[in-house]
């Protein structure tokens, strides 16, 4: 009688619909319980899976061997240079991440024993229709404690006074948020990632966030970015770039890359310096993963082309910069965490930059600070030119000009249509000057901006509207200054932007080759 009652009780318990704690990774068991499966069932599944994989690989790859680089499907950097499938290299695995900063704040570890039962889908029958498991007072006490731990783990406390930002961020183990907006940027991603790895600020203190937006149809920026980011974090990106560079060099020996034809008109000393910038030797943590990488995709309706002539036409600057302001604010709002002390904005198309740029800018202890940014030019255009003219000191003439404009008009710096007579940081460069010299400025350019995170928490942002007849980064500088924060620039600390031939430059190059060029 007791035996029969136990059987009935067990069957009824299985039918009970009672509250349980189950992980999504461990759903309720189906009627096809694994206990009913024989070993033959598992062997059949394994053999069938292996056969399917073999047939799929044979159909896809033919007789060629599998290459880990196939994840980067025919990626090309400057034209069409598919990665070779002939090699079958075993890329080294990333070293064990021992730095505590990889696991602090939102990545902190939890007491696995406290949550083990819940993660495995264990059931707690406190009350059932026909009795239930015997729950002792000790069991109930443990259950209540585990539930309290589970719930309290979702509550965090931050003292924001600890994340104000100091001049010695690396020594003080201050977390930094690295932000980069991307649009039709597939061709510069290898260079961008090499600069990332070259950063000497501790990688375990850097959270990276990318925003991919408004790319052209057929552009592969997002897919390539995801692939490179994964290899960056597993420590294999260096080896992949070596293979890619070798493949590109081999291909260019046979056929000139038309996208690089302009290089014959450039200062060859600069070309050699750019080529050598990533040749090594690298710093010890060059290949070290970063604390985290986030990739966002969101469009903002930007339809202005990405060509040099399109982007820099004066008539589109106001509209373009307001949309860029929206994108920057969106990325900041979604990526900034309470424990970030610094925010570093960096464009993807910087060609030359010191690996110590973050510490160098941080050491000046400005609330907002920018370097000087130039770009190389063809030799027939005097070899070089100031690039970022959005970093400047305010002038009386500009303030008077603003009074004559409508409220929504945007002053575009560096264009003849807006004679501001401001002092531009770019024109204060002394090739032999002190790179640590600092100046107080008002507007800032967006190529490379280091700012204390507290500014964004206090409301400073990149206006997507007209703020004192400016928008985006220039308005960001003016807003920060108006709210009492320090804004500075380094006239002799240099970053070099890539050269993008304009339509007129390409015409002049063609004329030179035909012997028809008239410099006057």
Description:
Keywords: Membrane, Transmembrane, Transmembrane helix. Belongs to the ANP1/MMN9/VAN1 family. One of its GO terms (cellular component) is mannan polymerase complex. InterPro entries: Mannan_Polymerase_Subunit (IPR052086), Nucleotide-diphossugar_trans (IPR029044). The chain crosses the membrane at residues 40-56. By secondary structure, the chain is α/β, with parallel strands linked by helices. It has a domain at 162-514: Alpha-Beta Complex (Spore Coat Polysaccharide Biosynthesis Protein SpsA, Chain A). It is built from 15 helices and 12 strands. The strands form 2 sheets. Strands 1, 2, 3, 4, 5, 6, 7, 10, 11 and 12 form a 10-stranded mixed β-sheet that branches. The chain has a two-stranded antiparallel ribbon with strand order 8-9. Helix 5 links the parallel strand 1 (175-182) and strand 2 (206-212). Helix 5 runs parallel beside helix 6 (221-234). The longest helix has 23 residues, at 39-61. The termini are far apart.
Features:
alpha/beta, Spore Coat Polysaccharide Biosynthesis Protein SpsA, Chain A, 10-stranded mixed sheet, two-stranded antiparallel sheet, 34% helix, 12% strand
Instruction: Give the biggest sheet.
Output: 10 strands, mixed
Given this structure, which CATH class of the domain at 162-514 is correct?
Alpha Beta
Specify the CATH homologous superfamily of the domain at 162-514.
Spore Coat Polysaccharide Biosynthesis Protein SpsA, Chain A
Question: Helices and strands, in N-to-C order?
Answer: HHHHEHEHHHEHHEEHEEEHEEEHHEH
Please report the distance between the alpha carbons of the first and last residues. 112 Å
Helix content: 25-40%
* Poorly predicted sequence stretches spanning 5 or more consecutive residues: 1-9, 11-35, 61-71, 73-88, 126-130, 308-312
**What is the oligomeric state here?**
single chain
CATH architecture of the domain at 162-514: Alpha-Beta Complex
Mean pLDDT: 83
Beta content comes to: 5-15%
CATH topology of the domain at 162-514: Spore Coat Polysaccharide Biosynthesis Protein SpsA, Chain A
Number of helices: 15
What would the principal axes of the Cα set say about the shape?
A: globular
Count of distinct strands: 12
- Evaluate the radius of gyration: 29 Å
What structural class should be given to the helix and strand makeup? Answer: alpha/beta
């Amino acid at each position: 009688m007791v035996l029969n009652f136990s059987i009935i009780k067990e069957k009824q318990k299985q039918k009970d619909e009672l509250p349980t704690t189950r992980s999504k990774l461990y759903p309720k068991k189906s009627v096809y319980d694994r206990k009913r499966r024989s070993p033959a069932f598992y062997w059949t599944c394994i053999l069938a899976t292996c056969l399917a994989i073999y047939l799929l690989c044979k159909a896809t790859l033919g007789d060629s061997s599998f290459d880990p680089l196939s994840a980067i499907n025919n990626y090309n950097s400057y034209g069409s240079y598919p990665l070779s499938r002939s090699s079958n290299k075993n890329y080294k695995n990333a070293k064990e991440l021992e730095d505590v900063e990889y696991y602090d704040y939102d990545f902190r570890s939890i007491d696995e024993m406290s949550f083990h039962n819940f993660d495995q889908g264990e059931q707690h029958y406190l009350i059932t229709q026909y009795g239930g498991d015997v729950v002792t007072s000790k069991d109930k006490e443990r259950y209540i404690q585990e539930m309290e731990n589970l719930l309290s783990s979702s509550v965090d406390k931050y003292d924001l006074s600890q994340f104000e930002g100091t001049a010695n961020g690396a020594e003080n183990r201050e977390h930094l948020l690295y932000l980069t907006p991307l649009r039709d940027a597939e061709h510069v991603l290898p260079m961008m990632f090499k600069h990332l790895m070259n950063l000497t600020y501790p990688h375990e203190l850097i959270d990276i966030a990318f925003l991919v937006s408004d790319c052209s149809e057929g552009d592969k920026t997002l897919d390539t970015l995801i692939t490179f980011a994964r290899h960056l974090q597993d420590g294999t990106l260096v080896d992949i770039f070596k293979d890619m560079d070798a493949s590109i060099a081999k291909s260019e020996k046979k056929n000139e890359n038309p996208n690089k034809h302009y290089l014959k008109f450039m200062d060859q000393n600069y070309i050699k310096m750019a080529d050598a910038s990533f040749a090594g030797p690298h710093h010890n943590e060059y290949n070290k993963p970063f604390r985290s990488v986030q990739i966002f995709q969101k469009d903002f309706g930007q339809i202005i082309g990405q060509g040099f002539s399109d982007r820099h036409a004066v008539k589109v600057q106001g509209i373009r910069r307001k949309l860029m302001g929206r994108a920057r604010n969106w990325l900041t709002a979604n990526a900034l965490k309470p424990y970030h002390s610094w925010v570093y904005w960096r464009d993807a198309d910087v060609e030359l930059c010191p690996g110590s740029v973050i510490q160098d800018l941080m050491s000046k202890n400005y609330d907002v600070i920018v370097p000087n940014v130039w770009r190389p030019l063809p030799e027939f255009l005097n070899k070089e030119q100031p690039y970022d003219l959005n970093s400047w000191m305010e002038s009386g003439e500009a303030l008077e000009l603003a009074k004559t404009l409508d409220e929504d008009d945007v002053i575009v710096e560096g264009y003849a249509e807006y004679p501001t007579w401001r002092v531009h940081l770019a024109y204060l460069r002394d090739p032999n000057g002190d790179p640590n010299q600092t100046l107080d400025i008002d507007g800032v350019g967006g190529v490379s901006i280091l700012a204390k995170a507290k500014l964004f928490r206090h409301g400073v942002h990149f206006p997507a509207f007209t703020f004192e007849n400016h928008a985006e980064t220039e308005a960001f500088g003016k807003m920060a200054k108006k709210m009492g924060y320090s804004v500075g620039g380094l006239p002799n600390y240099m970053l070099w932007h890539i050269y993008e031939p304009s339509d007129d430059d390409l015409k002049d190059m063609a004329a030179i080759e035909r012997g028809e060029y008239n410099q006057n």
